[in-house]
Amino acid sequence: MRLTSGPLRRLGCVLALSFRALVLREISGAWALDNGLAMTPTMGWLHWERFMCNTDCEEDPDSCVSEKLFMQMADIMASEGWKEVGYEYICIDDCWMAPQRDSKHRLQADPKRFPSGIRHLSNYVHSKGLKLGIYADVGEKTCAGYPGSLGHYNIDAETFADWGVDLLKFDGCYCDSVEELANGYKHMSLALNKTGRSIVYSCEWPLYMWPFHKPNYTEIRRYCNHWRNFGDIYDSWQSIKTILAWTSANQQTLVRAAGPGGWNDPDMLVIGNFGLSWDQQVTQMALWAIMAAPLLMSNDLRQISSQAKTLLQDKDVIAINQDPLGKQGYLLRKEDSIEIWERPLSNLAWAVAVVNLQEIGGPRSYTISLASLGQGMACNPACHITELLPVKTKLGFYEWTSYVKTRINPTGTVLLQLQISQTTF
Ligand code: GLA
């Protein structure tokens, strides 16, 4: 509704002021999103990268965005080991909606593609011991042009809670200003909390903020459980490389923003699709673990190679991603196209990733001085080292003055875990 005439415009101002008072009262004193969720990064499956906005169920019944797709993924998540290793949220992205709201202004699912409705789908997903995620947008329209939540934050939050939704991905398209964007993200956070249902809040607020000014991550953390910072992931090495380069270039800002309850989100895992070589898939898995990233796969679990499945279900690597200390890792140094990333873990352990970014030639050797890791503390006075990726191998016992030799394929990664030992030779 556009407020143009005198009395209506005044009413608009009064409503705006009372909303502001409400927001200020509700946020004062809250320094982190107080919903108790995402104490470790969210794990699950999200349809976007693999299935995008495919709404043509006649032409493509098995790959269109429909309740059948999500039910099939839920069946497989529950029966083929995904749930056991921690993948829990089945998430719907854009293009699930009917083009119009219903007569009560509530969002509704496309009746052809979701004939049983979202409530039914969430019951189904819950019956498998999993959780359901949904998608909406802070502005007038979603990025693909479906109804946005602007002016409807409360009713949409209530609708999602009524349906039994457990996660909301809230996109940032079609917003008129950065103020509208920020107010909208805050409003939806409060509206979700007010429903009383536990709903993980996945934001894209900083991504849409960066073109205007550097986001205030302290503020974003107070409202969101994770937040996208950078453009959409594609099924390509170019895309993975760019995300890693952007993350390391901005790590001073990003790393300190992450911790239990709030995470940087470098976007979906595309492992198991078409664009990445085996070594590049290893790199994505290893670095998403180092970055404490949400692990939201976007692939077709009905058709996935056993190699990709084994990588995605690797319990040791998942344990690094889910480490309860919740500290995000960072790029320690880069030498001649070799990057060394490290991440502190609980129990004084460290994860170290050695990435070979050289795209010519064969495998390269790289020798790491253990004293250079973790500010000298990662292997002090000695440690056990296990190579987790690409192949799990116990490398043995090392003293802190010694060196460990790695050999890394082009665009691949060697992921190591160091566990302090008090015993010496
Ligand atoms: C934006 C988001 C993507 C996806 C699409 C859907 O581009 O960043 O992750 O949700 O919108 O339209």
Automatic annotation (TrEMBL):
The keyword Ligase does not apply. InterPro entries: Aldolase_TIM (IPR013785), GH (IPR017853), Glyco_hydro_27 (IPR002241), Glyco_hydro_27/36_CS (IPR000111), Glyco_hydro_b (IPR013780), Melibiase/NAGA_C (IPR035373). Gene3D superfamilies: Aldolase class I, Golgi alpha-mannosidase II. Transmembrane segments: none annotated. It comes from the Eukaryota. It is found in: Lysosome. Keywords: Disulfide bond, Glycoprotein, Glycosidase, Hydrolase, Lipid metabolism, Lysosome, Signal. Residues 1-32 form the signal peptide. Its EC number is 3.2.1.-. Residues 326-412 form the Alpha galactosidase A C-terminal domain. Homodimer. Belongs to the glycosyl hydrolase 27 family. This is Alpha-galactosidase. It comes from Pipistrellus nathusii. The lineage of its organism: Eukaryota, Metazoa, Chordata, Craniata, Vertebrata.
